[in-house]
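just leaving the lab so this will be short. below you get a single protein, a line of residues and a line of whole numbers that encode the local backbone shape. id like you to explain what the token line says about the fold, in plain words if possible. thanks a lot i owe you, the record is right below:

…
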Amino acid sequence: MGDEATNDSHRDKSGEAPLPAPQPVSLLTRYNGMLDKYPLRTKMATSFAVSAFGSALGSYLSSLDGKKSPNQGRPRQPRIDWIEVFSYAIHGGLINAPISHYWFEWLSEHGPGSDTKSVLVDQLVVQPPLAVLMFTCLDVIRASLKAATSQFLEAGVVSKAIQNAAPAVVASWRFWPFVLYFSFKKLKRKYWTVSLNLASVIWTVYLSRRGSIEE
């Protein structure tokens, strides 16, 4: 009797026992399955996440090295350089992971039979130009992100978007409900998107003319 009460207490309201929490072995098995099924995409996602984590941790630890600001003499708050984090993540996921994937695939099939020779080929022939490529890409990505962030802040993108969105939403209520009603009422479901795309031509013309007049 006591065992039955204990079992009932571990069941959810639907009468079924709750699913056990995923175990590390189960997660590893699932990850191995993803590597087998989607090798490139899995490696890209892994490299993106690991590069982001490593850069964030390094940035945070670097901010702890200097206890005081050299100019103001005040304690500095620990911070993370998010531009640096995204730069490493983008490089790791979109550039380094695909190159490494195809390079190691080629090396395993066509490279020297000796593991020692494979290591020497990788480290002496391939890694030096990859290091140059990495720092070049990081500089380009950093510059692009900094320019985009600076332009975003200086242009007041969010405030302008909110300011323009209010009248646009009101205007859309005089147009899109009729388009949607007509599509739902008169057309088959497979044509709904086509109908909305055609109607968006009129809406885009309106928004474009409205933006030109305001400028």
Notes: The chain has two domains: 24-155, 161-214.
